[in-house]
Amino acid sequence: MQIPPSSHLAHIIKHYLILESNCNEPINYRLFSDGNPGMVFYFKTPLMQQGADQAYAHPNSFVYGQLTQYKDLVSTGKLDILVVVFQPYGLYALSGVASVELNDSLIKLNELFKSNAEDLEDRVLNENGIQNKIEHIENLVFKKLAGSSYPDNTLTGALKLIDNSKGNISVAQLLHVLPITEKQLERRFNQFVGIGPKRFTAIVKLQYFLKNLQRHSQDVKIADAAYESGYYDQAHLNNYFKKNIGITPSAYKINNLLAINFMQV
């Protein structure tokens, strides 16, 4: 289930996701990038993730940066998860930390938000009703925005052009419209978003393709959805899909999805 944020915070919070599963048996999941950082709260059993040496359970609440590679996770019990999906630059606006430094990171709330974090976690995890939980989150976000650093109009303009084109725009086309050099644009994307404009544009394009796959009935050919999304080379799409998601488009289409970028494997 997807819930929109309050209108006065829509420039920082993209939406909220409620992810649920009543299965008590172990299930393998895969999470891959949607181009946005976020914040997570577990109301039941946290997911397990494989670390460098051993698997570990996620904390009850945390923030995560951009994903540069897919992550394999395992549920060991019922799931009830609230995900706060930020705008691409939202985590930088709240933390002041260069987004590129948070890539592939999972950071406990108290490490990023200090004294405010424990109170927020307690309120969200123990409050009744999803709207009340969201209200506590938005109160903290609103407070953290005081004196925070926002990207300039050039970067937000680039993000809007990319979204409006559904990812079908080149860096050269962006530079033709925006008053900025390629190196400057690259630096700003890394600082505010965490990845470069070319990579971010490719993620946006892929997300629109996945939405097209979901919107079409099962008998619609993947090639048709790909063409509609701007992929004119099926082999290139398959290779990109395998590299960034680890499976083929046809395997994704029949998968059991909890979210567009979170699926069973």
TrEMBL record:
The UniProt record lists the HTH araC/xylS-type domain at 156-255
What is the name of the protein in this document?
A: AraC-like DNA-binding protein
Q: What does the UniProt keyword field contain?
A: DNA-binding, Transcription, Transcription regulation
Q: Which species is the source of this protein?
A: Mucilaginibacter lappiensis
The UniProt entry's coiled-coil ranges are: none
Q: Which Gene3D superfamilies does the annotation name?
A: Homeodomain-like
Q: Pfam families in the record, alphabetically?
A: DUF6597, HTH_18
| UniProt-listed PROSITE patterns | HTH_ARAC_FAMILY_2 (PS01124)
Q: Does the entry feature the keyword Transcription, yes or no?
A: yes
Domain of life, source organism: Bacteria
SUPFAM superfamilies reported in the protein's UniProt record: Homeodomain-like
Which taxonomic lineage does the organism of this UniProt entry have? Bacteria, Pseudomonadati, Bacteroidota, Sphingobacteriia, Sphingobacteriales
Q: Which GO terms describe its molecular function?
A: DNA-binding transcription factor activity; sequence-specific DNA binding
